[in-house]
Amino acid sequence: MSKHIDSEQKLERALTQALKGLPLRQAPSTLELRVVGELERRAALPWWRVSFGHWPAAPRVAFVAVCIALVAATILGGVFAFAGDRSFDQAAALVLSWVQPFLAVMSSAGGVATLLVRVIPPLWLYGGLALGIVLYVALFGLGAAAYRTLYLRPSSVGDDL
Amino acid sequence: MRAYQDMVFSTAARLAGNDTQAEDIAQEVFIRAYEHFSDLRTSVTAGGWLKTVTTNLTLNYLNRYRKRWRFFSEMRPATEDGETDAPEMDWEIPDTILAELSAEQRCAIVDAALRQLPDHQRLPLVLYHFEDLSYQEIAIKLNVSLTKIKTDIRRARAALLPLLQNGGAARDTLDG
After folding, report:
1. CB 3.0 to 4.6 Å from A160: which of A23, B99, B120, B135, for a disulfide?
2. Would you say the pTM of this structure is higher than 0.80?
3. What is the ipTM, given to two decimal places?
4. Any CB–CB contact under 8 A between A137 and chain B?
């Protein structure tokens, strides 16, 4: 074991010495031309073809203003269409009449769940919870096995990065 | 740009192990540098900024091809493909490697050898030996466990040694 560690340390030292101070690779002569060409190509794009962050200030402000106006118009349009010639109180009461059944269903479901927790023995609850976890893990394992068997090519196993 | 293009290209090429990809990455690095030109022009740390951006862009570039299946592939046991946690090195470790060659010759042999390593060995090895990052920093940068990084670097060194020795021997034969 000690000999093995010594060998590793010796290899690390030897490689460090071999790799340190190596000269830089020379960049291809085409690199500078490529960069300049790409910068020119991007500079030639009209402002609406580049990302929003690079838009001129005036179009950015106008774009945000238009978006806000559209959202406000949509909301206000919906409210006016819904309210029609009703007063605010009537419209609010109508909305509440739609929401109340939903709240009642949720409240009933909560009551049933509470009742079940009280009636069912705790052992059953814990057992059911454990079974759910086991099934979840089994499903996950099956998915992983299927992925490795059916999708992952043998040559790519090991290329972890 | 001329002052830094070799450094940027070298960093990308050694990490990516592919000159074509390295040139693409170097191009993107300099375009980003151009976008930050007002900050970099007077900065004394422009070189460091370029190196960091190059490293991160290269890792992002390589990440695109591994994200889909990395999670499942990392679930495999380490011995599945014949590798062990601690690679045995039953050959003689020399005190020096390629020491008799010129820097340019060593550079060519090292770069050729690095290209033959798989990504998961080359990346941590280059970050450790060329970028002077610690194991912990490499693990964070690559989003991989510290144990795996140490194992991969050990395996990379063990794989690199015969490649360098063979490269050196071939160079000696050609020169001789």
Report:
1. B120
2. no
3. 0.70
4. no
